TrEMBL record:
It comes from the Bacteria. GO terms for molecular function: lactate racemase activity. Residues 282-421 form the Lactate racemase C-terminal domain. This is Nickel-dependent lactate racemase. It holds the Pfam family Lar_N. Gene3D superfamilies: 3.40.50.11440, 3.90.226.30. It comes from Halanaerobium salsuginis.
Length: 429
């Protein structure tokens, strides 16, 4: 037997498994970088990809719109990289009053002044305008055209009227777009609600009852209509520049890319793939994964990242044991309702097609996963709260292993994923 421990909430859970059953411990590569975080950002800005330096693009007197993520993405630590972007603009003669920060809220709520200050950080807070995008405010939008997928593209008028749009954010694996960052700052970031819903609805198959679209998944660009649609919309907006960061497993800046919004983002995706994806030769009977403890497992909404990654390493009808404390419950009422108010996956799909939201999709997706696999959740959640979705909740790792044995027997080939939210297994048949 071999001993292991995994983070769970603010603690660790300890367990043993037969060594002969262990296929591997899947972890991301630690970035090999001798630069400081400041040097990482400055180097990216000084060496733009597919573009001139930002200081050579902008001119004094021009209006600059910097698109930033909202408070749900505060883990990006934008307050630590935005000052370097502003510094380059001011070196080019752009005045503070000509710089506006537009928060890419997508379909999320408006934010408080305190949250705006958190986004900009100590160096910039109070010195610049921060405006929240409101997707349902038609008066604040301008129509740019229609994509080849039929999505009507409306974006924030302030961005469209600016001389330059600069996109910022972080590149991570994304369950719908394949990759976060880049084009997502435009759609859904600063797009109209109708545009967002038309784009995201492609996460489902064309026919009712067909379930989720198999072309829509993390790390997939080719053949992914959501990604391609977002890219078309972003090109309509004509961003002048991009700065995206890549985060390490401990929340540090592992890398950064800058320049042309498409070319720089593509390079950033390659870096994330090198750092966070792990090739596997086979899928397992059992995957044990943790998001990485608090705050990554603060609620069930955040757990979806770990579920998606664990699924990629698991055989059909295998067992996934997900460690997620969920001390703040579901984290979103829509997830809870779509799980609890419907009896079947098909009924949840019908509701999602009727009124699509990302939160509902997360609730739908986990129930679809629980239909394909044996889903065991070690959590503080009430077992009855997710029983309708066929998710089994236990309060200890020992009970989880006992249940796995009951479901699938002994001698289960096993992967462990100690950083499940940040590690993406790539399996090629």
């Amino acid at each position: 037997m071999k001993k292991f421990s995994m983070k769970y909430g603010k603690d660790k859970l300890h367990f043993t498994i037969p060594e002969e059953n262990l296929l591997g411990v899947l972890t991301s590569d630690a970035p090999q970088n001798e630069q400081t975080e400041a040097e990482i950002i400055k180097t990216a800005l000084a060496n733009p990809i597919g573009s001139r330096r930002l200081a050579e693009i902008v001119k004094p007197g021009e209006q600059i719109c910097i698109v930033i993520s909202d408070i749900t993405r505060s883990w990006q630590r934008m307050g630590d990289y935005l000052p370097y972007l502003v510094e380059e603009l001011q070196q080019a003669g752009v005045k503070a009053e000509d710089i506006m920060f537009l928060s890419a809220t997508g379909s999320h709520r408006k934010q408080t002044q305190a949250e705006h200050n958190t986004l900009l950080g100590e160096k910039l807070a109070g010195k610049f305008k921060v405006i929240d995008h409101v997707a349902k405010d038609e008066a604040s939008l301008v129509y740019l055209g229609e994509t080849s997928y039929g999505t009507p593209v409306k974006i924030n008028k302030l961005a469209a009227e600016a001389d330059h749009i600069i996109l910022t954010g972080a590149i991570v694996f994304h369950l719908l777009a394949g990759w976060g960052g880049g084009k997502k700052s435009v759609l859904p970031g600063i797009a109209g609600y109708e545009s967002i819903m038309a784009n995201h609805a492609m996460s489902l198959g064309a026919e009712p009852g067909s379930g989720s679209n198999p072309e829509i998944r993390s790390g997939k660009i080719k053949g992914n209509p959501i990604y391609a649609d977002m890219l078309e919309a972003a090109r309509m907006a004509e961003p002048s520049f991009l700065l995206n960061v890549i985060m390490g497993s401990e929340g540090e800046f592992a890398a950064a890319v800058a320049g042309d919004f498409y070319q720089a983002h593509e390079k950033g995706c390659q870096i994330v793939d090198q750092l966070d994806s792990v090739p596997i030769a086979e899928q397992a009977d059992l995957v044990v994964a943790t998001a990485g403890g608090y705050p990554k497992d603060i609620n069930f909404y955040q757990t979806i990242k770990t579920v998606i990654n664990a699924e990629a390493a698991l055989k059909k009808n295998g067992v996934m044991i997900i460690l997620s404390y969920c001390n703040e419950g579901f984290g979103n009422e829509a997830i809870q309702k779509i799980i609890q108010d419907y009896d079947t996956v098909l009924e949840r799909e019908e509701e999602l097609r009727r009124d699509y939201t990302i939160a509902k999709y997360v609730g739908y997706y986990v129930s679809e996963v629980a239909q394909k696999y044996n889903f065991i959740l070690v959590s503080s959640l009430d077992p009855a709260s997710v029983a309708m979705a066929n998710i089994r909740v236990v309060d200890s790792i020992e009970k989880a292993f006992a249940l796995a044995k009951e479901l699938k027997g002994d001698n289960l080939s096993t992967y462990l994923m100690p950083h499940g939210a940040n590690t993406f297994p790539r399996y090629k048949k």
